[in-house]
Each structure stands twice: as structure tokens, then as C-alpha cells.
Amino acid sequence: MTVLDIRNLTVEYRTPRGPFHAVRNVSFSLEAGERFGLVGESGSGKSTTILALMRMLRGGMITGGELLLNGRDLAAVPDARYRTIRFAEMSLVPQGAMSSLNPVLKIGRQIGDIFADHRVRHTPEARRRIIGDLLARVGLAPEVQDRFPHELSGGMKQRVCIAMAIALKPSLILADEPTSALDVMVQKQVLATLGRVQRELGAAIVLIGHDMALMAHFVGRLGVMYRGELVETGPVREIFTNPQHPYTRMLIDSLPSFDRLASFRTAKRSPVLQRGRV
Ligand SMILES: Nc1ncnc2c1ncn2[C@@H]1O[C@H](COP(=O)(O)OP(=O)(O)OP(=O)(O)O)[C@@H](O)[C@H]1O
């Protein structure tokens, strides 16, 4: 079943020098449970693409194309109803947990607000248990709900964001460089957690990143963005063995040879990974 179908998405930002096309004619689709990676240099339009989907563009607007989520045309959804789609049907794991968590509210309250916003009713005891279970699923102690964000490490905060993203069991998770602010070991652990919960949920995921090696281990299919356009898409193995666009070749060539080999081997050996379900 097709979860997401983006057709010819075009996004413009208003700038003092006139409209700027940050995304032009981008098309790709995702099946249920699939993992798709969007790579590209800084400013190539990766974040703009998923912010457009979430209807969270600041200073920008969609000027062309269609966005279909589970077969529904998102353009037809009024702003007021869009709130019910976020978290319930698609959710965003943001780049910096720091800026997305409210510093003055305890973690439990912030997760609880998602249920409250979507009118999911629980007794206080049930809600505490459900939030505790959710935290446990992302590798955190249930008691983390009684803490404030500043009492948690960067990795823990990012895990909280993952817990929030899966709270209402969406069919699509959008993750914008969810681990870029973390050190390498924590990065791998948090990404592994994201992968596990995504698989358990059967949700499709769009992972944004610029680390080709990390991406190759996580996703089944890659899309390469360059100056607002999606210049190449395909299974990881194909992209690595037969890159078509000069920018893709450059991305692969810039990997240390060990990473290149390891990425290629993983993609080659694992038929499961090629289907994006690891
Ligand atoms: N609010 C805005 N107003 C004007 N231009 C913007 C705005 N937000 C982004 N842009 C421009 O749109 C282009 C695409 O930005 P975007 O953040 O989508 O890129 P990205 O590929 O996600 O980059 P990064 O990897 O650095 O996050 C860039 O040239 C950026 O400067």
C-alpha cells in the first residue's frame, strides 16, 4: 500500500530579492514500512520538502504539485484539521530535540499533551503507564516522564522526540537529521532505536541526512537532492554501484574508502535491507 505519494512538489520562499524556488518538481513515493533516505548538500531542499508535507513552512509556500498521504490529497485538508494529521498519521522527528522540547514542561506532560490534543482520553494512572511504556520502547526509564528536558542528555532528548513521534502510531515518520547533533556512538544507538520502533510500527520513514554511509545502512532506497531538485532515486545498491548524477558520484567518492566498501557490501548482501525493512 502506498503511504506517501509526492508529485511534482514545488516550494517557494519569499525573500527580499523575490521568490526563491527551494524545491522544484520533486516526486517520490513510499510504500508501507519502507525506508527512504533523502541526501544532499546543505540548502538542497531536503528540510523544505518535509516541512511542506507537515505544513510547517515558515515564509514559504507550496506553489505546485500534489501531496497524497494514504491516498488523501493533503491540499484539501484545512489548517484546522491538519493538526489531527500530525502525530496521528505522520510525525516529525526534528533535527534538534533541544529546540523542539519545551524547556519548562516535564517530559510526561509534553507527551501527554499529544494525547490530549488528539482527544485520546485516559485516566491519570493509565496515562502515566502508557507514557512509561512509550519511554521504555525507546530505551528510557519510565521515570524520565518526571524530568525536565535540561535534566536529560542529548541522546535521551532525541529518544523522547522519537517516543513523541510514535505515540499515536502514525503510518509515516519524517526524520530530519535526527542524530546530527549527537556524538558518533550515541548517533548509532539512537538511529538503531528509531529503526526498531519504525519496524515494530510498520510505519514508512523518510530519513534526511548527508552522511551517505550512515544512510546506506539504514534505508532501502535513496533520493539525492541537488539545488532543489531530486536528481536521482533508486535502491541503495544501485546508487552506490551505478550513480547517474555527477553530484551523486561526488557524494560517494567523498566517502572514506572503508565506508564506501562497507556500505556497498551491506547493500549488496542484504536483500532485506534492499527492501527497506531492516
Ligand atoms: N524561511 C526561509 N526563507 C528563505 N529561504 C529559505 C528559508 N528556509 C530555507 N530557505 C532556503 O531554501 C533552500 C533549501 O533549504 P533547506 O533547509 O530545505 O535545505 P536542506 O537541504 O534541508 O539543508 P540542511 O541540510 O542545511 O538542513 C536553501 O537555499 C535555504 O537557504
From TrEMBL:
Superkingdom, natural source: Bacteria
GO cellular component: plasma membrane
First and last residue of the signal peptide: none
UniProt similarity note: Belongs to the ABC transporter superfamily.
Keywords: ATP-binding, Cell membrane, Membrane, Nucleotide-binding, Transport
PANTHER family with a match to the protein in the record: DIPEPTIDE TRANSPORT ATP-BINDING PROTEIN DPPD, OLIGOPEPTIDE TRANSPORT ATP-BINDING PROTEIN APPD
Name assigned to this protein: Peptide/nickel transport system ATP-binding protein
One of the record's GO molecular function terms: ATP binding
InterPro entries per UniProt: AAA+_ATPase, ABC_Ni/Peptide_Import, ABC_transporter-like_ATP-bd, ABC_transporter-like_CS, Oligopep_ABC_C, P-loop_NTPase
